[in-house]
Design a protein that fits this description.
Belongs to the NOP5/NOP56 family. By secondary structure, the protein is an all-alpha fold. Helix 19 runs antiparallel to helix 20.
């Protein structure tokens, strides 16, 4: 605990908390072991000195290993703070909503640049088309307005989704007051327009991603107040857990801190709403009821965020029921019709949520069973393939020793025949021995006699030649 406080706390908090920690440790030692411990005064300095020179006091411990231990402690503490369920991580929501807001600003700035740039050539188009994304698509499609003809009317209708507007654009291009433009300038305008279009399309994809993440992480909050406003609340609070810890009064003015502190400083009226102003409920309420409905909505947002944060299987049932309650409260402010009691609504929500959770768990079990079956089949297929591969190898191994055996037998036979030839006696005149010998041996003996006769003849020839010389 002391190491943790030493590494992660600022200097002012550190002293106070270390004193509290020492007192608690001293009390625990007294309770367990019966030893009286002093925690104040010089003890803190002594402990600080021991901690500073700990690597020198302990054998086998170096300063490097001590710093590694402190780093490991810090990492384990940080890891404990992070949720282990990957699908319910709210960090992705914070990053995506921040990027979405940044993209909105950038797309707006770039679209205004395209309007100003292309407006020199075709100024009438700005009055006909007000939407930025459509304007950029038209600027890319039209290019030089003088080349626009009746054939391109279908393409204009596809972009604008209105035949009257497409006809108005065609007529305006024929009688436009804009200046002529060079092909190089048009290429630059078209390339910049295509960049703005791709950014707008990416923004749509990012919004879908944010919607899916909010349905996984905070389904009740997104069902109550909407994905974008809910994500902004989570981002402003820092995490879903922090938002769940806030009271309803804080959630109500979350995002209006400047106005709140200015009102406190000048002793004026405090703000009635912050980020929740962007929800549809406050816009639909009358001017006199805006403060009341914002307070009620903040209360329901707090309940929804706590349900999302601490429930094991997140569902949107509670969010839908809370939304119905806010709708009833709006109707009560306008017509005076009394809304249902909160207890009745929550009882209904608990019953429905239990059914939904049971269904979700059933589906998860089915998925796990299917996954196990697939894994089992895959393992069986792998084992079968391995067996098939091993069969031919064993056959080849069986064939090889057979071949070796045959070779050995042939070599043994040849050796035996040579031994018999060497040990066999010379044939007698009557030829009885010759008949007893096998044909193969007889043949070999005849060939040997013939070779000896040839050698003798060669020797005689050599002797005659030498005598003649």
């Amino acid at each position: 605990l002391r190491l943790l406080l030493e590494t992660s706390m600022p200097a002012k908090k550190k002293k106070a908390l270390l004193g509290v920690a020492d007192a608690k440790i001293g009390a625990a030692i007294l309770e367990e072991l019966g030893y009286q411990c002093q925690t104040g005064g010089v003890v803190a300095e002594i402990l600080r000195g021991i901690r500073l020179h700990f690597h020198a006091l302990v054998k086998g411990l170096t300063a490097q290993s001590a710093s590694k231990a402190q780093l490991g402690l810090g990492h384990s503490y940080s890891r404990a703070k992070v949720k282990f369920n990957v699908n319910r991580v709210d960090n992705m929501i914070i990053q995506s909503i921040s990027l979405l807001d940044q993209l909105d600003k950038d797309i707006n700035t770039f679209s205004m640049r395209v309007r100003e740039w292309y407006g020199y050539h075709f100024p009438e188009l700005i009055k006909i088309v007000s939407e930025n994304y459509t304007y950029c698509r038209l600027a890319k499609f039209i290019g030089n307005r003088k080349e626009l003809s009746e054939e391109s009317l279908e393409g204009l209708e596809e972009i604008v989704m209105d035949s009257a507007k497409a006809q108005a654009i065609l007529e305006a291009s024929r009688s436009s007051m804009g200046m002529d433009i060079s092909p190089l300038d048009l290429i630059n305008i078209e390339s910049f327009s295509s960049r703005v279009i791709s950014l707008s399309e990416y923004r749509k994809g990012l919004q879908e991603y944010l919607r899916s993440k909010m349905s996984q992480v905070a389904p009740s909050l997104s069902a109550l107040i909407g994905e974008v406003v809910g994500a902004r609340l989570i981002s402003h609070a820092g995490s879903l857990t922090n938002l769940a810890k806030y009271p309803a009064s804080t959630v109500q003015i979350l995002g209006a801190e400047k106005a709140l502190f200015r009102a406190l400083k000048t002793r004026g009226n405090t703000p009635k709403y912050g980020l929740i102003f962007h929800s549809t409920f406050i816009g639909r309420a009358a001017a006199k009821n805006k403060g009341r409905i914002s307070r009620y909505l903040a209360n329901k947002c707090t309940i929804a965020s706590r349900i999302d944060c601490f429930s094991e299987v997140p569902t949107s049932v509670f969010g839908d029921k809370l939304r119905e309650q806010v709708e009833e409260r709006l109707a009560f402010y306008e017509t005076g019709e009394p809304p249902r009691k909160n207890l009745e609504v929550m009882k209904e929500a608990v019953v429905e949520a239990s059914e939904v959770v049971a269904e979700v768990k059933r589906k998860q079990e089915k998925k796990e069973k299917k996954k196990k079956k697939r894994e089992k089949r895959r393992l069986e297929a792998l084992t079968a393939a391995a067996e098939e591969n091993s069969v031919p190898e064993t056959e080849e191994n069986d064939i090889e020793p057979k071949k070796k055996k045959k070779k050995k037998q042939q070599q043994e036979l040849e050796a035996e025949s040579e031994q018999e030839m060497e040990a066999a006696p010379e044939p007698e005149e009557n030829g009885l021995e010759e008949e007893a010998l096998p044909k193969r041996k007889r043949k070999l003996m005849v060939e040997a006699d013939q070779e000896e006769e040839k050698k003798k003849k060669k020797k005689k020839k050599k002797a005659r030649d030498s005598e003649e010389e």
